[in-house]
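Much of what follows relies on a compact textual record of a protein's fold. A record is reproduced here so that you can trace the correspondence yourselves:
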Amino acid sequence: MRRYARTVVALALATSVVTGTAGWVSGDAQQALTGPPPGTTSWRADRVLGAELPDPERADPAEVAVFFDGLSTKERHLLLLRHPSVVGNLDGAPLELRYRANSLALAAADDPRYRSLAAPGRQILAFDPRGRGQVAEVFGDLRSADGVSVVVPGSDNDAGTFDRANDVYGTPAGMAKSLYAEAGPGTAVIAWTGYTTPVGVGVDAATGRLAEAGAGRLTRFAEGLTADGLPEPAVFCHSYGSVVCGLAAHRLPATDLVVLGSPGVRADDVDGLRTRATVWAAKDPTDWIDDVPSVRFAGLGHGTDPTDPAFGARRIPAGDARGHTGYFVPGTDSLRAFAAIARGAATGEGAAR
């Protein structure tokens, strides 16, 4: 009987896997984009400053920050012009330099998918055109903000769909803009699409393969923020993005970890995340994610529902959100709670850690 039950669970997972934003459709296997930014080979060979430059793959963000602190304005500008794709994606480099570098990289990109990202006034903190494209954008004044937040989206998101016009509050840019508008002055929000997300429903969405690759990238990104002198962020993780956050949690510098519309975070409870961040969870009653089996078997599935009281997360009210992408809609209880967390003013309800 036990073997039969496990077989049923495995079949359910194989046919009822979860996607992030696009609904129940077939999925295509994706190759995770990993490794250093484009242009790294030329960067490594450059001796324009008379010595080796910090290796984008091996130098940690703190070492990168120390390197740039020791450069003159002229030297920084020289590297910016010679290697915009590296500087723009180099975690630990000064954010002002990264904005300028990515502006240059986007201006040089001959791809209509990224044209809107090159619009004047946008603060692009990371841009990688390879594959489906990856991007991070800042809303607010990151340098002066007392509270910093990072939004990690789920499936079907990339640089080309980053701020699409349909399903606005399911897009990385739409979620981040809405959170920033609600949280108000003194905060800044980063929409981070810095990993290869699953496309549709398929094995990618049901396993942790892409999330494992994304977890390392998210950790390094957050370490780059703190290395640049910014506050530790509150991290908001939607759908498959919560799998990324769950796998990164034990080493992710963050004040709060907020999972919403989550299929599971690959941990049985809050203690299993091994994080010092305060963990929050939200799920609205109309979210189809509730139909996804909260199990893990043979590598499929992501485990316990984080809104289950036994998981131990602080529960965020989401009764008036609608569907899988309604959590950041203006006027909802969930968005108000998110904003309080972003400001560092939340006290929480439900199960406290």
